[in-house]
Amino acid sequence: MTGFVLVYTGVSPMMALGTDLVVGSAPPEKAGSAAAMSETGMEFGIALGIAGLGSVVTAVYRDETADTLPRELPEDAAHAARDTLANADAVADELPGPLGAELLEPAGRPSPAA
């Protein structure tokens, strides 16, 4: 949430000025279409940035956790935990205390029992 506040604080003036520039340069009868295209472009850019960053973070998570999972973890649980942090969290809730804590340790997450 803090990240979004910081991003939008920095991006908002640029978005407002960009929209003003686009709408101001369009003929009055096309101002609505120009504003819609400007807004669509900005929303698409933000969505693409979030998707790209999410993909990179997921790839890094999978690479980092590949060798850090506990050896005694069942294969299906290991596969789910390797996939996403949310899955690892869910798997850790179902494991006995020490094994669940060991699973979440590389991610810096507290154990489910804590």
TrEMBL record:
The chain crosses the membrane at residues 42-61. This is MFS transporter. Keywords: Membrane, Transmembrane, Transmembrane helix. It comes from Streptomyces alboflavus.
